[in-house]
Structures are given as C-alpha cells and as structure tokens.
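Q: Structure tokens for this one, please.
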Amino acid sequence: MLIEKYSFRDKPTNIDEEGKRKWVYAKQPHGSWYTLRTLVGWGLLVFWVIVPFIRINGYPLILLDIPDRRFIIFGAIFWAQDTFILSLLMLSFVLFIILFTVSFGRVWCGWACPQTIFMEMVFRRIEFWIEGDYRTRRKLDASPWNFEKTWKKLAKHTIFLLIAIMMTNVFLMWFIGSEKWLTLIKEPISEHRTGLAMMLAVSGLFYWIYSWFREQICTMVCPYGRMQGVLLDQNSIVVSYDYKRGEPKGANAGGDCIDCRRCLAVCPTGIDIRNGTQFECIHCTACIDECNDVMKRTGQAPNLIRYSSAIGIEENHETIWNTRNIAYSAVLIILLGFFAYTIFTRPVIETNILRTPGLLFQENADGTISNLYNIKIVNKSHNKYDLEIKILSHDGRIELAGRGIPLNDQDLYQSTFILFIPADQITNENTTVEFGIFEEDKLLETYKATFIYR
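A: Here is the predicted structure, written as tokens:
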C-alpha cells in the first residue's frame, strides 16, 4: 500500500526549502473592510500621539511614571500603594483578551496591535507610495543597483528612520509626560548623553523591525499567535474560507473559488487562508476584500472568505456562546465589579508611617522616650488638605519637620517626625502606637506603628 507523504506546514510560510527568508511582497488591499480598518488604525494613531498632551485637572490623560511609581489612567492617579487595584485592572485586561480571543480569534492583532497598525498603516503605505505595488517592488529588489533603485531605497529608509525616532519620542512622553519631554529637548545634549543613546538604540530597534524583520514579529516572536491553538474552538469567529462553497477550486472546476490566489498575494504574513485556520493569520480581513472583489467580477455571491466559525461553515449558522464563553464572561464581570468597588471605596488619603531604619530610641532629660519616624501621605483626590498628625494611643507629643502637612491635588507628602512618650507608659520593648490624621477636628485616617524601648 502506497502512503503519500505530505509536507503541508512543516515549515514557516516565510522560509524557503533551504531555510532562508522569503520576503513577503504583499499587495496593497482595497475594499470596505480595509477602509474600516484604516479608520480604526488612524484613530488609534491619533489617540496615541495626542494622549500625552491631553490634560484632566492639570494631569496627563495617561502617564506611566515608573521611576516615581505613579500611574495616571484617564485622569485617576494610582500610586505604589494601589498595587492591588492595578493588579485587578491588569487581571481584568488579560481575562478580557482571553475572552475576546475565544470568541473572535486574533482580531486584536489585525485591528489594534501597535505592530500591525504601524506596519500596515504607516510603513507599508510609505513603501507603496515610494516603490509601488507588490510586483513593482519585487522587480525593484531583483534589479541591479542603479539611480532609480538607489534614490527610492534611500528615501524609503530615511523616512523609516525618522518615523522610528518619532515613535520613540512619543512613547517616551507616555512615561515621562510631555512637559518633561519638552524640557529635555530644550536642554543641551551634553546633559543627556545616556538618554540620547538609549533613545537612538530604541529607534534603531524600531527601524530594524519595520524595515527588515516585519511580519516575523507576528509569526515567530509574538506568543499571542500560539495562544490561538489553545483558546480557539469550533465556535470562535475567525477569518475563514468557506470550503463547502469553494471546493473543488479552479476555473470551471465546480466550486466558487477560481484559484486566482489573490487572497494569498494580499496577505501580509504570506499564508493561504484556504488551508484553514493558521497561527500566522492576524485576521486583518485583506483576503476578504480581495476575494469579494473577485466574486463580484465573476458574478458569484460575496463572502466566500468571511468572518465565521468552523460550526458556522459546516452548519451554516453562527453562534459564539457556549459554556466556556459564559464562564469567562461571568468571571470578567465579577472582576470588573470588584475593580469598580475598590476604585469608589478607596480612601481619599493614604498614610504610611514607619520607624526610620538604623536608628534606636532616645532617652530624654524630661523623662520621655523618643523614636524617629518617616511619614508618607498620598492624596488620591482632587481636593486640597491642610492636615495634622496626632498620637491617639498614648499621652505623648509629636515634633514634625516643617510646618503642618499641606497636600495639594493628587499630591504626595513625605517628611519625618519625632514621637515623645513618657517612659512610665512604655511597658514592652515593642509597643504598638496609633496615630490619627486630622483635617481640623475631623479624623480622616488612623495608622499603627511600632515604638521601641530597651
């Protein structure tokens, strides 16, 4: 008995028989889906650029200030003390991605992933503009170096590099803010040589990714594509080829697919969607538009390639709800509810008082014992406070460095103070003391710390 050996998918689509890189010359898409994706992509690009300049109550719309452990998300400020809330937000986001992938496959990659948006809406469009469509680019790359090839390549890569530098600077503003960025660029380069070197290194990385590595980020590096094999099921809505309509393919073969291979020519990752769901597919819908154009020209019904599920193709009906989706959705709703509860119930101020490390107690001439403390108070509201700290648990006194505790909108106060307690009130080596944070006579928060003696 003769057994046929198949080589289907025994290597990546962009690797040839010798293990060398096969360059993907994708055709420029056209169609209703591409128009919609362009609107979404440019909307996200505009949002990405203007976010550092938008202010709410004087603060950036979004700021990820990692060195100061301060995160501003849509005007709400989160400090290091809010790690639990941020963890809930991150967990909810991860669960949402899982739920969305279970339901709609890799739509994030084709519609909202920064890699895809920059590649398809910015860099590849510049390539189309300078070098022409896929046939012209393939011919240009295969031709010997001449004046036309030199100036086109030089112009394209110069623009690529400038855009990469711009990308790095915009991303930098998300982490340091637009005001600090403007200050940095006005100061002499000699004062920021290390920062400049890092900026150029990151820009070089972006340039390398979009000028050479390109779709290999999606097919070889990104782990999200591999997650599809675990998360997708027969109810997941993905870009699908209707094999029941299309087969047998070929001109006059009986199926609607005429085997024009235009769906393959337009694919940015170089796959053939007719071979079924593949992890390289980013669900960008380029093949849908291309196939619909062919169907229109041949007088066939549209949507031979469309968003559908395996069950939808097989049974000709769509449904995304099953036990797994419902379970994920229930957990997500619970997490979001808990997140909302923690946001609305978190205190307006948060105090942290700790004994200053490395210092022992002091015995004073007036019969008191003193300990030195560090105090940090975070204002999580947009109100202004003039606070006072008092000792609640003992008959002692506090000497605070500075005058009062002023707290402005979303401010952070840090200082030191000395707590004096009569020696006859201290009965243990480690005594728990309780402090109160007051605004005038209103108690806002209490905090317990340790007082040491002997």
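A few notes: The chain has a mean pLDDT of 89. The two ends are 91 Å apart (CA to CA).
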